[in-house]
Amino acid sequence: MIELEQAAFGWPEAAPVWAEVSLRVQPGEKLVLLGANGGGKSTLLQLLGALVFPTAGRYRYDGEAVTPARARRTDWARRFRREVGLLFQHPEAMLFNPTVRDEIGYGPRRLGLPDAERRIGEWAARLRIDHLLDKPPFLLSGGEKQRLALACVLVMEPRLLLLDEPLAHLDPRTAGFLLDWLAQSPATVITSTHQLASAPRLGARALVLAGGGLAHDGPLAAALADTALLARAELA
Ligand SMILES: Nc1ncnc2c1ncn2[C@@H]1O[C@H](COP(=O)(O)OP(=O)(O)OP(=O)(O)O)[C@@H](O)[C@H]1O
């Protein structure tokens, strides 16, 4: 489903954040993305979500190269946005509608999903923000904004979920809901986190970014037992 081949990414006028990243992810896999602050986890998730593109190497989604030219094609972009959901690290970055209802409904309505209104009610209830549906998102608390941002992504029931530190602002009950929901979801999920204690519930395969590259791609248990790797990735 996802294939990175010797991929690198650097922001304009800066050294590459990481380079020579090669990776294959099969449908339904659950991966945990670990690494130090500034190690490039968010950047990798943004690249997999086609918000930025490799500066070297290749990214293929379902066998097709993800390039700026392809992303400009409306038919391709529409299908990709329908299938791929990216939860930003800072929920404010993705909230811009006048009400919580419009915010959750933005994706389903824009893509013309016939059951958009049912989905809005269902996901608002699941994330316990149904009492806030008529409120402007900017009036929500930090945790409520995070739940809203999650609802906006999950309402699309994506095939590929890219979650950037989703547990950061959540209360234990909402975090528990998310972890349980992810465990039964058929979606492919890549989740970045600094919370090593919760990591085993997010996936059995770990990607560790360290030293400008992918320092580990393999069992999470092996990564957590590797003290030298954890030190390199500033995780311990
Ligand atoms: N939009 C941007 N423009 C320029 N540089 C950026 C941008 N976003 C991130 N960077 C830089 O890219 C590097 C990687 O940042 P990134 O946010 O991907 O790291 P991260 O692993 O997610 O970090 P954290 O754990 O702190 O969230 C950092 O040096 C950061 O300053």
Descriptive overview:
By secondary structure, the protein is an alpha/beta fold. It has one domain: P-loop containing nucleotide triphosphate hydrolases (Rossmann fold, 3-Layer(aba) Sandwich), CATH 3.40.50. Helix content is about 35%, strand content about 25%. It has 9 helices and 10 strands. It has helices at about 40-50, 70, 75-85, 100-110, 115-125, 140-155, 170-185, 220-225, 225-230, and strands spanning about 1-10, 20-25, 30-35, 55-60, 65, 85, 160-165, 190, 205-210, 215-220. A 6-stranded mixed beta sheet has the order 6-7-8-3-9-10, sandwiched between helices. The longest helix has 13 residues, at about 140-155. The radius of gyration is 18 Å and the shape is globular. The two termini are about 30 Å apart. About 40% of the residues are buried. The model has no long low-confidence stretch (mean pLDDT about 95). The site of adenosine-5'-triphosphate has 12 residues, from helix 1.
Short description:
The protein is of the alpha/beta class.
Throw out a few tags for this protein.
ATP hydrolysis activity; 236 residues; ATP-binding; alpha/beta; 4-stranded antiparallel β-sheet; Rossmann fold; single chain; binds adenosine-5'-triphosphate
Task: Spell out the blueprint of helices and strands.
Elements: E1 2-9, E2 18-25, E3 30-35, H1 41-48, E4 56-61, E5 64-65, H2 68-71, H3 74-83, E6 84-87, H4 100-110, H5 116-126, H6 142-154, E7 160-164, H7 172-184, E8 188-192, E9 205-210, E10 213-219, H8 220-225, H9 227-232
Parallel strand pairs: 3-8, 3-9, 6-7, 7-8
Antiparallel strand pairs: 1-2, 1-4, 4-5, 9-10
Helix pairs in contact: 4-5, 4-6, 5-6
The site of adenosine-5'-triphosphate (ATP) has 12 residues, from helix 1.
